Amino acid sequence: MNRQAHPRTDWSGRRIEVTLGNPAHGGACVARFEGRVVFVRHGLPGERVFAHVTEDRGGSYCFADAVDVLEASEDRVEPVCPISGPGGAGCCDLSHASVPAQHRFTAAVVTEQLRRLGGVDREVVVEEVPGGAPDGTLWRTRVRLAVDVAGNPGYRRYRSNEVVTDPACPQIDARAYLGLADRVWQPGAELQVVLDGDGRRHIVEIAPPPVASAARRPGRRGAASRRAAASAPRAEKVIEGPGRVLERVGGREWTLSPTGFWQAHRGAPATYSAVVSEWAQASPGATAWDLYGGVGVFAAALAGQVGPAGQVVSVEASKRAVEDGADALADLGQVSFRQGRVERIVADLPAPEVVVLDPPRAGAGREVVSAVAEAGPRRIVHIGCDPASFGRDVGLYREHGFELADVRAFAAFPSTHHVECIGLFTR
Q: Is 78 helix (H, G, I), strand (E, B) or coil?
């Protein structure tokens, strides 16, 4: 039976009164008004609010911000971030919720995504990651700031290229921002600011992306061109620091570029590495894969399990990360690095006993999950930073006979809707 199409509607700019329901993926709560679903940000379940419709493309749903709270939840607190909220920066979208409420919010989302996309009915509890302040601030070690057309740094507004030129988000220590507003930066550039393992500040100015004529066009083609330009290599200028960042996990040191990937939460690398070590259970002399391996934090943990007679193969697309990882793990002869895209390399790797993979936000996807499953590992440890893509990957593993033996979720991005999931798969 064909579904009846919803009449073409545009509520953009409309102010509506709604009662908020369950959390939804992306940091909103679900509400209903005049037969349509409204995804409302900056609210909490059970609250009655006036919501301002911010985006409506017609159909059965639209998006809104809670701008006036008529009946507040007991979990509502004074927002810890001064620049987030309706119309503000897109950073701390749960900073109006108590920390326990943030955990319940994200746990509900993970539980729903596992059920809906992964076919797994399991309640999830979101765990704290050590290293931040109790109120969900001061956890971040690195930020990427935008620079507006006048050369002022700040954070982008939610789903916008406009910049809030008040770098005051409390995810990172305020000394990260010292002096940044006192100079004019290259318009359209970005600033990577890092407080490394020794507390030293590093600043890199990243040149604006090249803009082709196609990128100036409206619509999907222009958007695709702009995304491609943003991901292309860009010139980097070291403003402060030696150009090499020092980080530590488990007594081992890594030095890497300030713009290279490292987990944002100061406690995340050690926390995730501990879970990987507990769940991998690689045998002495075995082969292990570390896919999307970065600079080899998980490879180091696996190397201790397989020992000198085993081998750990780390696959990473970034040439710079491979070089930094090889330098850091030069004393571990059982670790080798392969540079390239996982889906192009995985078929040529030796058969593994254990696979660890930490794909980007979009997830591993069907091609990689199929290749991993067909390689026949005994155990798979999968790290995912997006509940929806993690849920989809769970479903793909299950198609290949692997079941989710265990799962843990971590509040690795306090004051935001983001959450990190780690799953153990066996068959």
A: coil
The answer to whether residues 186 and 207 touch, using CB atoms and an 8 Å cutoff, is: yes
Flag whether pLDDT at 167 surpasses 50. yes
Cα gap 405→392, rounded to integer Å: 16
Task: Decide if 29 is catalytic.
Answer: no
C-alpha 95/C-alpha 91 separation (Å) is: 9
**Ordered alpha helix ranges (H), 117-218:** none
Q: What are phi and psi of 76, to 5 degrees?
A: -75, 135
DSSP state of 23: B
State the CB neighbour count (10 A cutoff) for residue 381. 27
In angstroms, how far is the first alpha carbon of the chain from the final one?
Answer: 38
Residue 37 in contact with residue 30, Cβ under 8 Å? yes
Q: Are 76 and 44 in contact (CB under 8 A)?
A: yes
| Amino acid type, 27 | G
Residues 6+ apart with CB under 8 A from 340: 315, 317
Active-site annotation holder among 29, 81, 169, 385:
385
Place of tokens 């999307």: 292
Give this prediction's pTM: 0.92
Domains of the chain: 1-76 (2.40.50.140), 142-242 (no CATH), 246-426 (3.40.50.150)
Residue type, 299: A
Give tens-digit pLDDT for 320-375: 999 999 999 999 999 999 999 999 999 999 999 999 999 999 999 999 999 999 99
